[in-house]
Amino acid sequence: MVRNLIKGVGVLEQNFLVATEWLLLAFAASILSIRLGISVALMEIAVGVIGGNVLQIEITSWVNFLAGFGAVVLTFLAGAEIDPESMKANLKESVSIGLLSFLLPFLGGMAFAYYVFGWDSNASKIAGIALSTTSVAVVYAVMVESGLSSTRLGQAILAACFITDLGTVLALGILFTGFSMKVVWFTVILIAVVLFITPVAAKIFEWYGGRVSEPEIKFIFLTLLALAYLAVTSGSEAVLPAYIIGMAMAGFFMRHKETLHKMRAIIFATFTPFYFIKAGALVSFNALYTMAGAILCFLIVKIVAKFIGVLPTTKYFSYGRRAGIYTTLLMSTGLTFGTISALYGLANNYIDKSQYSALVAAVILSAVIPTFIAQKWFFPVPGVEESSSLSLVTENCSLERSAGNECKD
After folding, report:
1. Percentage of the chain modeled with pLDDT above 70
2. Beta-carbon neighbour count of residue 10 at 10 Å?
3. Total domain count for the chain?
4. What are phi and psi of 21, to 5 degrees?
5. CA 40, CA 159: separation in Å to the nearest integer?
């Protein structure tokens, strides 16, 4: 809007103007988040919707890169925060929750698009894949902000997110992209990096750690960027190797918490605002109006399918009522892989623009609505950060009792 009043500005001036608009929105989101007590990730998406539809902010190539890199490092941090011992202890429930969190929305979304909306088979598959996702970025941001990332409940949810999104990536690869020699080579390189990244990082941290120039953080960023390039070149997604490398280095970063906190500060202050604001900017008021019925249907299908799959599983593993609903709502979120899947379908003519708009709007709304409900009414630790050494059952039961509910040990 302001940009239209300025005539004849050069490229450099234009870039500074665009950056000013985006950082102004990020700053406003932070203030509103603090004032209203709402997660900053949700506020950034909300101001992004206003920025994209009212202020008509520009999404430039460098904005896309900053947003993409923010998603990559945020995903890496989510993996790096998972305690290996907690991962082993929660493996059965994380795999069960993550698998059902993918499978039922995938089948439900695909069937709904095909039989109710009459989409063809390829479009229906894209719909199922887009609706099956869980947003690691949103869940991790909420976990960090609320202090749950270090609890066993938080660890179990983050691990389940990885299983869900791994299913999404595999489904997209098997049903559409196939497997080429590039995928094989990328897999071999990724395995090699997983095996050698920790000892190499240990040497670099030992030799060069603690300097003002932070070479150890630059080394991590370099590794993530190189793997992101190889992933995209092979037809995969940039965020997938980031999560795997983060999990591979989780034990290492248990001994280097200070570096992890520095990286978190860099990412949350600089990169993730672009990622979340861009997500909001992709929501069109016009699409919300003209495609409201389809968007609402897809959103309901996704959330209902997640509840059918995840909530009974949390009960089976003795989660308390609040913790079970909270887990289910967070597993109902979607963003990165959902929009990526929809964009892939549009780029390859499997879906048209109206179908794309409906899917993207449903996916982005799923990042906002379930998260808001979870944080507002089902937050399991009201003002208390539980120790990760507690058993998951004991932790959840104590939370239930503190909320005045009954819980069976």
Report:
1. 89
2. 8
3. 1
4. -60, -45
5. 22
